[in-house]
Amino acid sequence: MTEQAGERPSVLDQLPGELMMWVLIVSELLVFGAGLAAFLAVRITDPAGFSEAQSHLHRAGAGVNTIVLVTSGWLAAHAVCAAEAGRARRLRGLIAGAIALGAVFLVLKGMEYADLAAAGISFETHAFFTFSYLLTGFHAAHVVAGMVLLAVVAVPASPRAVETGAAFWHMVDLVWVLLFPVIYLL
Amino acid sequence: MTITRAWMMLLVLSTASTALAASGMHGAPFVVAVLALAGAKAHIILARYLGLAAAPSILAGFDLSLAVVLILFMGLALAA
């Protein structure tokens, strides 16, 4: 009886990749989810002010950045397939493409920050900007971390390493698709 | 759904979000539509990019949690 129970596969065994990466993914989603909920809760106190502040953001640029990130994720997902097929050269090319698109994302984000700074808008201008700088800045830091991680896992090029790096990259993608509508569109 | 088909779906859904915002649509229909599109994108990333399509029970758990969060976001957005 005990032996049978011990042999029963855990539902966690179904998880693709490293369990600890999934713990990280869930943790990050909780942190960003709480941040976005707090943003929306504070917005209730000043909807007109939040709407006016939002008009200073690069909505079209953020839309382009969504395309950039999901395309980068597509390259990373293909890199995992290439790693599993033992095609190290192809996977490194795909990872390089994913990293390059990460850099494009950061350049577009940097242009938005530069325009806000040129307009004299800072963290303290309005609660909207306090939240948007914190949430998008924290996300951008994850983009940088993801780019470094992808570069690191491309060296050994083992399927396990590449899958772990790609999972982190997809988490960055996942956070952005939730962050984009709340900060830029609503 | 292949990875490439998932990517194409994500492109379509992302374009739809931006087009909705540009259309001038507002109020509750806009909030619900934009957050529903975000939920659809998140589901595709979880299922295909992160590979949870191979673990349906875990994917269902993520989808349920995501739905709860998005309903919370909708409530807060509509309360403003």
Secondary structure tally, helices of chain B: 3
Poorly predicted residue ranges of chain B = none
Structural class of the helices, strands and pairings of chain B?
mainly alpha
Q: How much beta of chain A, percentage-wise?
A: under 5%
Q: Using the 3D structure, state the CATH architecture of one domain in chain A.
A: Up-down Bundle
What value does the average pLDDT of chain B take?
92
Ends distance of chain B: 38 Å
Kindly report the greatest chain-chain contact and the residue count on each side: A-B, 42 and 38 residues
CATH topology of one domain in chain A: Four Helix Bundle (Hemerythrin (Met), subunit A)
Helix share bin of chain A? over 70%
Largest sheet of chain B: none
Give the structural class of chain A: mainly alpha
- CATH class categorisation of one domain in chain A: Mainly Alpha
Number of strands of chain A: 0
The portion of residues forming beta strands of chain B comes to under 5%
Rg of chain B computed from alpha carbons, rounded to a whole number of angstroms: 14 Å
Shape of chain B: flat
Please trace the helix and strand order of chain B, writing H or E for each element: HHH
Based on CA atoms alone, the radius of gyration of chain A comes out at 19 Å
The quaternary structure here is heterodimer
Low-confidence parts of chain A lasting 5 or more residues at pLDDT below 50?
A: none
What does this entry show, briefly?
By secondary structure, chain A is mostly helical. Chain A has helices at 2-7, 19-43, 47-54, 59-84, 88-118, 127-153, 159-185. Chain B has one domain.
